[in-house]
Specification:
It is a single chain. The chain is an alpha/beta fold and 382 residues long. Helix content is 36%, strand content 15%. It has 15 helices and 14 strands. It has a 6-stranded parallel beta sheet with strand order 7-6-8-9-10-11, sandwiched between helices. Helix 15 links the parallel strand 13 and strand 14. The longest helix has 19 residues. It is globular.
Amino acid sequence: MKIVCDANMPLAREAFATLGDVVAVDGRAIAPAHLRDADVLITRSTTRVDEALIGARRLRFYGSGVIGTDHVDGDFLDRAGIPWQGAPGCNAASVAQYLVSGLVRLALRHNLRLDRLTLGVVGVGHVGRQVCRQGRALGLRVIACDPPRRRNPRDTEAQAFIPLNALLQEADVVTLHVPLTREGEDATWHLIDAARLGRMRPGAFLVNAARGPVIDSDAWLAARDRLGGTILDTWEPEPAYRPEVLERADWGTPHIAGHSFEGKVNGTMQVYAAACRVLGVAPVFTPAMPPPPVPELTIDARGLGREALLEKLVLPVYDLARDDARLRATAVADDRARARAFDQLRRDYPMRREFTATRVNLLHAAPDQLSLATALGFQTGQ
């Protein structure tokens, strides 16, 4: 069996080698010629999977090891009779922890108390739920918007959600976690346009870790001075993002919010398990996780306020400012060179483990300080 997979998927070669012969190719370079005689195709979001790529080939399975599916023509795959599977929720914790790092950075730069802010979460799927939990753990008041869920009367959680315009008027921080869709009543392409930017509270903060075109970049540039700050992980377009947008963002990162090692391996394992089900074989591969870059932290918590504690707790494990610096260092004028550098930053992303991989020793900690570390997911001990 021939299996073509994105060379940038951690442990994909090892996992799928238990099923057949693996050919690893850079995701953006996967072409019809690579699929000659292929039985299985496994990619991430950098590969457009549609009729132009697959043609009349009858793949036995296609797997996408990421949450979003806007790079996949699912209707074509269904018509062609090709079983396929995404990886919903695989990197939800990673994206939520990206937001935690961003909120800590915003609090430090602007001298904010997080427990006095309202977080507005737009899109409450796998990622949005994790973001809501982490926001509450940080002490923020959390409000949410998800119209498709709100319309389902059996979705009891969603009955407390509010309309988008109301959320924009009320939130101090608006964070976007919606799929990219271009049609229908819930289309998200340019969801945040000039009119909706105008409804945001003056001085409010905006975070986009969904898809770049969810924000109208021209409208954002015109409204930027009304906002207190913006964090962008996704761009319109990618990978040749607009340098002027990065220049005016407070922090910009190369579409890596979900790039924790756990998040990427979860995606690999979800599509591996799905492929095994479709092919009728038992999964035999079990991933071995490498040691975390920050296995342990010891913090004297005596007298530390919430934001000061978060600085010592969160940023040593993951600080989005480091990813911002890497992106700005490669923001050259030439579109092709800038796009290549963007992809290289994603391909060569340094090892990042989630909070659960780090043990924290909080010395002289008050109960609420210990509870904060535990709620964020850290292992805690005295």
